[in-house]
C-alpha cells in the first residue's frame, strides 16, 4: 500500500492534553518544537498467518516477519532518531532491535506498549471464537469501542495506558519510533487524529507497516500511513 499524504488531517484528541513546548533559540527568541513520530507494527508471526488472536502470548516473528523487520529498519535508517521504544513482547522487540541497530541506538522497552489483553480469546482462531462467542465477535467487528473482552481489556483501557508513553516522546528532542501491535497502533492513530475509538476498523495497518506523524506544540499531523517498503501486496493483512 502506498503512503497516504494527509496534510489536512491535523486534529488532536480532547481526551488528552496538549504536549510539546516552546523553546528559546540561540538569540533568545521563542521557537516551536516539532518532531516526527514513527509508529511501527511488528513483523509477521505464524499466528498472524493462521488467524489466531495473539494478545499477551509471546509469539515470535516467523521468517517472513524477520525479513519484514529488516526492510522497515532499512527504510528508517538515516533518519534523526533519538529513541526506539518497544512493547516487551518478542515480536515487537525483535522488530525494534532491527530498527535500533540500523540507526545506531538502543531499544527502550516499555511495558505499557504491550498488546491488548484478549482474555479468553487469546490463542484461539477466528473460527473458534465464532463458534463460542459469535455475538461478541459481531460486536467487536461492528462497534469495537463497546467491547470489553472477558478476562481482558477494552480499547479504552488500551488507549489509557499506551498514550502516555507515546505522548512523552512527542516532547523530546529528535524523532522517535514506537514499535507495538495492531490494536495499539490503531488506538494511538485514532487518538492522535482526534477520532473516537469507534473509528478503529476504518484504519488498516499491515504487519511491519509504519505510520508517520509530525508533532508540534501538541498538535499531531498525519504525514503518511501504512508504509511498507519492499514488502509485496501478498502480505497486506490486517490481523
Q: What does it look like?
A:
It contains 7 helices and 8 strands. It has helices at 46-50, 63-76, 90-103, 126-132, 134-142, 155-169, 182-192; strands at 22-24, 30-32, 34-41, 81-86, 107-109, 175-180, 210-216, 219-227. The strands form 2 sheets. The chain has a 6-stranded mixed beta sheet, with helices on both faces. Helix 2 (63-76) runs parallel beside helix 3 (90-103) and helix 6 (155-169) crosses helix 7. The longest helix has 15 residues, at 155-169. The radius of gyration is 18 Å and the shape is globular. The two termini are 16 Å apart. The model is unreliable at 1-15 and 17-31 (pLDDT under 50).
Radius of gyration: 18 Å
Overall 3D geometry? Answer: globular
Could you name the CATH homologous superfamily? Phosphoglycerate mutase-like
Summing up helix and strand content along with how strands pair, one would put the structural category as alpha/beta
> What composes the largest sheet?
6 strands, mixed
**Spatial strand sequence of the major β-sheet:** 5-4-6-3-7-8
Average pLDDT works out at 87
Distance between the termini: 16 Å
Helical percent range? Answer: 25-40%
Amino acid at each position: 500500500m502506498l503512503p497516504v499524504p494527509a496534510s489536512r488531517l491535523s486534529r488532536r484528541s480532547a481526551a488528552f492534553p496538549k504536549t510539546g513546548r516552546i523553546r528559546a533559540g540561540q538569540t533568545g527568541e521563542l521557537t516551536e518544537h516539532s518532531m516526527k513520530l514513527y509508529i511501527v507494527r511488528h513483523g509477521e508471526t505464524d499466528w498472524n498467518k493462521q488467524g489466531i488472536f495473539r494478545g499477551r502470548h509471546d509469539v515470535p516473528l516467523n521468517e517472513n516477519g524477520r525479513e519484514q523487520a529488516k526492510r522497515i529498519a532499512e527504510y528508517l535508517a538515516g533518519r534523526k532518531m533519538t529513541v526506539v521504544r518497544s512493547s516487551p513482547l518478542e515480536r515487537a522487540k525483535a522488530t525494534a532491535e532491527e530498527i535500533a541497530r540500523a540507526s545506531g541506538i538502543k531499544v527502550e522497552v516499555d511495558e505499557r506498549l504491550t498488546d491488548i489483553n484478549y482474555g479468553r480469546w487469546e490463542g484461539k482462531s477466528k473460527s473458534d471464537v465464532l463458534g463460542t462467542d459469535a455475538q461478541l465477535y459481531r460486536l467487536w467487528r461492528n462497534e469495537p469501542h463497546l467491547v470489553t473482552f472477558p478476562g481482558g481489556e477494552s480499547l479504552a483501557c488500551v488507549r489509557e495506558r499506551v498514550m502516555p508513553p507515546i505522548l512523552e516522546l512527542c516532547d523530546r528532542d529528535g524523532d522517535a519510533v514506537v514499535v507495538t501491535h495492531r490494536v495499539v497502533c490503531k488506538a494511538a492513530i485514532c487518538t492522535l487524529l482526534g477520532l473516537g475509538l469507534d473509528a478503529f476498523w476504518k484504519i488498516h495497518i499491515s504487519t511491519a507497516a509504519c505510520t508517520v506523524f509530525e508533532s508540534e506544540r501538541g498538535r499531531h499531523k498525519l504525514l503518511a500511513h501504512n508504509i511498507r517498503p519492499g514488502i509485496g501486496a501478498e502480505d497486506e493483512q490486517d490481523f
